[in-house]
Design brief:
- The chain is mainly α.
- Among the domains are: about 90 residues, no CATH class; about 100 residues, no CATH class.
- Helix content is about 55%, strand content about 0%.
- The protein contains 21 helices and 2 strands.
- It has a two-stranded antiparallel ribbon.
Length: about 475
């Protein structure tokens, strides 16, 4: 779901950054509750020159707008510098929110007039931005001000300005998400009735839970309050319902309520790709793989270039035992964006499932760096090192995780995973019980995660599954 770092998105990526999974490197796009967040259909503008031509302004002007006015320009990092790109639909949404600014700026003589019907230029091959988890944190290509009959009032201009700058999933590391939270809080200070800012803040707090600086239940509790406030202000928006569904599933373990809330979100916003992707991941946890495919495919149909639901499709194959199909899905994602953290991560897990240990470790090391060494990437790397025979390094990762926990907060679930890889089921179950106490069980639930295969018959493991209502 659209949530942590490195990229994600994210983050990423659940969001969990799951979208929100979107820990460090797994999401592409912006705040899921911003206008036209994330990849959208249509061609991509691949340079400042093309962006300036599309907006009928000089390159100097559009660069200033990006810096000062929140013009939605994305960047792909390279070794020494980054390249930029933008989506016409995002520019159109921004243009609508900046009508007075555009009227005050002279257009470039001879350039085509900018209007909603201006066709985008045909551009070169699309590449997704590396973003988490999550994460997602996740992205929805929708306009900021809904055109429903019951649309909320236009926000205060300064609130809108801050909201436009809350790009916490554009490169959703810890700093980006925290910066996004500050901008969203600023937007709410300017306009406490700004429903979309409350919804975006809820999504950001879901994404932040994957960095494990405070217990996930604390950040998710904040997210629930913010989502409830968003619903009070705008009951026609589905995005807050997906945040509520995330909390019900991953923290409260009320899976029936979570499903009802996901369906409520989709009833209100049927084309919200974040909700479609998060719901697919929920269905993976519930081992309802055929249904999960339906929603992952719908997300891809709405946003064919968004990498998270493409990765989720691979995860469905992975957790249902179709490793070759999973690998093919991840490789297609990485052809578009080689530094996409989540696809690297789960490709490593697919290689591990096939006992191709060298390939698995290579990918998991890379993804751990891309994702920013978030707990789930640390746990999976440690587990893989242990089962592949690199026990000394696995022990070092285990000791580091325990030391982090003694110094501050660090979740228990990755420690459980490493202990299991080292062949210590009793110690692993001790830590998994602590993970249940903390209400943070991992990127995917133990009920579906193959890491726990060796423990499935253990009475304590079955008791944990009963506790989290996933027998």
């Amino acid at each position: 779901m659209t949530v942590p770092a490195g990229a994600p998105a994210p983050a990423a990526h659940r969001h969990k950054p799951r979208g929100t999974k979107n820990p460090g490197g797994y999401n592409q796009g912006l705040n899921p509750d911003r206008p036209s967040d994330g990849p959208v259909s249509g061609d991509r503008l691949e340079s400042w020159k093309e962006i300036a031509a599309y907006l009928s302004r000089s390159e100097r002007t559009v660069r200033r707008w990006e810096e000062k006015e929140g013009l939605p320009v994305h960047r792909l990092p390279h070794d020494k510098r980054s390249s930029v790109y933008a989506y016409p639909r995002e520019l159109d949404a921004w243009r609508e929110s900046r009508a007075q600014l555009l009227a005050a700026e002279p257009s470039v003589p001879g350039a085509p007039a900018l209007n909603a019907s201006t066709p985008p230029r045909r551009t070169g091959r699309w590449r997704a931005a590396a973003v988490v988890l999550v994460l997602a944190v996740s992205v929805a290509g929708v306009s900021l001000i809904s055109r429903r009959d019951q649309s909320p009032p236009a926000p205060h201009p300064e609130a809108l300005r801050a909201f436009q700058r809350a790009r916490f999933a554009d490169n959703a590391g810890r700093v980006q998400i925290q910066t996004g939270i500050r901008y969203l809080q600023e937007a709410i200070r300017h306009d406490p009735s700004f429903a979309a800012a409350w919804s975006g803040l809820a999504t950001a707090h879901v994404a932040l839970s994957w960095f494990a600086e405070v217990p996930a239940r604390d950040t998710v509790e904040e997210a629930k309050k913010e989502a409830q406030r968003a619903l009070q202000l705008d009951p026609t928006n589905g995005a807050p319902w997906r945040v509520m569904a995330f909390a019900s599933h991953y923290v409260d373990w009320d899976h029936a309520a979570a499903e009802a809330q996901f369906r409520k979100a989709l009833a209100l916003s049927p084309a919200d790709i974040a909700t479609l992707s998060w719901f697919a991941e929920f269905l993976i946890d519930m081992k309802r793989f055929d249904e999960a495919f339906v929603y992952a495919r719908k997300a891809q149909e709405v946003a064919p270039r968004w990498l998270e639901p493409m990765t989720v499709s691979g995860n469905i194959h992975l957790f249902s035992g179709n490793h070759e199909l999973a690998i093919a899905d991840y490789q297609r994602v990485l052809e578009s964006e080689p530094s996409y953290g989540l696809a690297n991560h789960f490709l490593g897990r697919a290689y591990l499932a096939r006992r191709q240990h060298d390939k698995a470790i290579e990918r998991l090391r890379k993804s751990n760096d891309l994702l920013g060494q978030v707990p789930f990437s640390v746990g999976d790397l440690g587990y893989a090192l242990a089962v592949s025979g690199q026990r000394a390094e696995a022990e070092r990762l285990l000791a580091s995780a325990i030391a982090k926990r003694e110094q501050a907060y660090f979740p228990a679930f990755p420690i459980a995973q490493i202990q299991l890889g080292l062949g210590r089921p009793d110690a692993a179950l001790d830590w998994l019980e602590r993970a249940a106490d903390e209400r943070h069980m991992g990127y995917y639930m133990p009920s579906v995660d193959p890491h726990y295969e060796s423990a499935r018959s253990h009475p304590r493991f079955r008791a944990i599954l009963r506790r989290i209502n996933l027998q």
